[in-house]
Amino acid sequence: MVRISNVLDYSNDLSLVLSKFGLTQDEAMLVRHDRAGAIAILTNLLWKGQAYDCECMGRSKAEELAEKIISENESKESRYFSNKESPSSDSWNGLTGSTFDSGIVISSGDGRYFCIWLEDED
User: Fold this and answer.
1) Where does 33-92 have alpha helices with state H?
2) Closest residue by Cα to residue 37 from 87, 76, 73, 79
3) Helix 35-47 vs helix 59-71: angle between axes, to the nearest 10 degrees?
4) HSE-up of 39 (CA within 13 Å, CB side)?
5) CA neighbor of 95 nearest in space, from 17, 6, 29
6) 30 phi and psi, to 5 degrees?
7) Where is this region: Disordered (predicted)?
8) Nearest alpha carbon to residue 3 among 14, 15, 18
9) 19-32 per-position pLDDT tens digit
10) Cα 94 from chain centroid (whole Å)
11) Quick one: pLDDT at residue 90?
């Protein structure tokens, strides 16, 4: 399953925003990343399934799509978050009821938030 959503929220409360995306309401489970890190994490999530590491699309196509998704949903002041420490990390803090879940949340600094979250089962 893939969740893609935009939220407008002026509370500056990332936990509240997570709940609006249908994710666990706990911003402490997120790690802040730079833009390159966010693209790398999203590339890996689009490239291979989380449960069995099977290829979903070619790596170059996944990287191109990740770059496009990020660039279309960011601003100069954007901050990027994920529940993964790094693109290659096998550990994460689950934010859904799925066996595997990970994604990117972008805060644009003006109340706009974007989320793409991928879930998988084994």
Assistant:
1) 35-47, 59-71
2) 87
3) 130
4) 18
5) 29
6) -100, 150
7) 74-94
8) 18
9) 999 999 999 999 99
10) 12
11) 81
